[in-house]
Design goal:
The chain folds into two domains: 202 residues, NAD(P)-binding Rossmann-like Domain (Rossmann fold, 3-Layer(aba) Sandwich); 95 residues, UDP-galactose 4-epimerase, domain 1 (Alpha-Beta Complex). It is 43% helix and 18% strand. Helix 6 runs parallel beside helix 8. It has 334 residues and is of the alpha/beta class. The longest helix has 21 residues. Helix 1 links the parallel strand 1 and strand 2.
Length: 334
């Protein structure tokens, strides 16, 4: 039986991947290492508590004493663990440097010592910066423009260095904006959905013209799975959903799906240094046989419907004082 060490597995993408992997591979064991920061939610995996192939360990990827024994028992490491919200990185970047860079170093160092079969780094299209037209290939130079994406780009360079210097078998995937179940409602899509359900304003940054590609999280999981097993060692793979839409378009789709009026749209002061457009060329991962299964309409409908049907999950989060404090800091003066 093969053992996967999944870091950040109580977060959005990590928890979805654990569900995906255990459903697909009966012969896999998963060890989930998660610090349980504000966005880590064990409820995302409540259905696995009685599965003998799943084990949860609360701990920090920056702690070698915690990481070492877990990497020693793992065949494969998949690093999802990250501070990931751009707005929070603008308000303060120290935790982003600590987790995204230093934590990746700790994992890599232990992976070399214990000789793992493969180390998969989960990254983001934001490392490229912003593009006016066309789409980024994997050869495009890194040009991150905010503290979050800078730490993710730095971590990627460290992963590359460990491959070149130590021969560590690594692969990296750079994905576009994920949407779907279990996404913490500070991110745009779940924030808009849950605000709209409660007839609260949807804060649209600037004029709402910023373009993002939207990737349904299950499609992302299938791409990770493919690259993990068939990707070429040392290579990077873009993973995009080919579902471009502006922030304003996203807000209007959500309102329409929920039967809400567009009077809920509230244009607010734009994010500092806001990237205008992201676009990925995913032909490299498509050459391995991957295609996204959900187009924009389907992805958005599935996402909206999940939050409607799982109100208790997100309402418990939004009623916490730490969430209310964050919301006031980020939107109170906009």
């Amino acid at each position: 039986m093969k053992t996967l060490l999944i870091t950040g597995g109580c977060g959005f993408i990590g928890s979805n991947f654990i569900h995906y992997a255990l459903a697909k591979y009966r012969e896999y064991r998963v060890v989930n290492l998660d610090k349980l920061t504000y966005a880590g939610n064990p409820a995302n995996l409540i259905g696995l508590v009685d599965d003998g192939r799943y084990r949860f360990v609360e701990g920090d990827i920056c702690d070698p004493a915690t990481v070492g024994p877990l990497v020693a028992e793992a065949d494969i490491v998949v690093n999802f663990a990250a501070e990931s919200h751009v707005d929070r990185s603008i308000m303060g970047g120290a935790e982003f440097v600590q987790t995204n860079f230093n934590g990746t170093y700790t994992l890599l160092d232990s992976a070399v010592k214990h000789g793992v079969e493969r180390f998969h780094q989960i990254s983001t299209d934001e490392v490229y910066g912003s593009i006016d037209e066309g789409a980024w290939t994997e050869e495009w130079p890194l040009a991150p423009r905010n503290p979050y994406s800078s730490t993710k780009a730095s971590a990627e360079l460290l992963v590359r260095a460990y491959h070149i210097t130590h021969g560590l078998p690594v692969v990296t995937t750079r994905a576009s904006n994920n949407i779907g179940p279990f996404q913490y409602p500070e991110k745009r899509v779940p924030l808009y959905i849950t605000n709209a359900i409660d007839d609260l304003p949807l804060p649209v940054y600037g004029d709402g013209s910023q373009v993002r590609d939207h990737l349904y999280v299950e499609d992302h999981c299938s791409a990770i799975d493919l690259v993990l097993h068939q990707g070429e060692i040392g290579e990077i793979y873009n993973v995009g959903g080919e579902n471009d839409a502006t922030g304003l378009e996203v807000a209007k789709v959500i309102l329409k799906r929920l039967g809400k009026d567009e009077s809920l749209l509230k244009f607010v002061t734009d994010r500092s240094g806001h990237d205008q457009r992201y676009a990925l060329d995913s032909s490299k991962v498509q050459a391995l046989g991957w295609q996204p299964a959900s187009d924009f309409r389907v992805a958005m409908e599935r996402t909206v419907d999940w939050y409607v049907e799982n109100e208790s999950w997100w309402r418990e989060i939004k009623e916490r004082q730490d969430y209310k404090d964050y919301y006031q800091r980020n939107y109170g003066n906009r």
